[in-house]
Amino acid sequence: MRSRGFTLIELLVVVAIVAALIGVLAPALSRVRESGRSSVCLSNLRQAFIVCRAYGDEHRGRGPAIGAPFTASPNWAFVVQASAGRSGTSADEVLTADSVLVCPSNRAFNGVAMTRTYAMNVTGHNRAAFAADPDSFDDPSRPVHIRMDGVSGASKAVMLMDAAQSPSGPGLPPSTRSWSVIDLRLAQHLDERLGWFHGGVRAEPRASGLQGRVFQAVYYDGSARAVDEVTESLAQPLP
Predict the structure, then answer these.
(1) Which letter does DSSP use for residue 98 in this model?
(2) Is the pLDDT of residue 5 over 70?
């Protein structure tokens, strides 16, 4: 007896059912993947904090340089990499795609092998924008170090956070690195430099007054968590 095959209508129904199932499951799978990436990001931030804290303990409470020199130690990123055994004479040698300096959500969004995706909080040390600040993070003749033990309200003071990919141009980091410093008082930095990558498809940041995704940060008490809004308390100057 000849077996009966599928008719065209039956095949189309099966295809439609499979397509519907994929449509239902895809968002859930995307959320699962992002949850995993976010967990890795938080772990990275905590590890970077531990290195910076250890550096401070060895240097009378003063953490690594938060800005200049940008391509050499004692810049915070180079201190973190040195703790992992990475050394060299250039940023291209020291900063790598397989380090705690790279958030997997940022890398997934940009679609390139990023080598640094976090930025240091320089709020309170940006004399070029705020004349009252005591110093400037980008002065190569005088590296700025945060007095870690002097940070008031350490659980509300951000140390490191997700950062957006830097545009190409003279004096800017290459496209495989994010911005390395953010002043949380500057609306332009909140819009252009913060890495609002977590929680799904990227949207406009809340700095623009629109609903956005979240960025992740580690605080001076060592806690790390997602942040969906830069409040006034977060934008307080660091000592």
Answers:
(1) S
(2) no
Rounded-to-integer distance, Cα 164 and Cα 66, Å: 17
Q: Indicate the SS3 state at residue 118.
A: strand
Backbone angles phi, psi at 197, to 5 degrees: -105, -20
Query: Taking the chain, what is the end-to-end CA distance rounded to the nearest angstrom?
Result: 87
Tokens of 101: 């300096």
Amino acid, res. 101: L
In this structure, the strands spanning 224-227 and 215-219 are: antiparallel
DSSP H or E run through 10 = helix 8-58
SS3 62: strand
pLDDT digits (tens, 9 = 90+) for 123-179: 999 999 999 999 999 999 999 999 999 998 999 999 999 999 988 777 788 888 999
Contact 186, 118 (CB under 8 A): no
Distance CA 51, CA 46 (A): 9
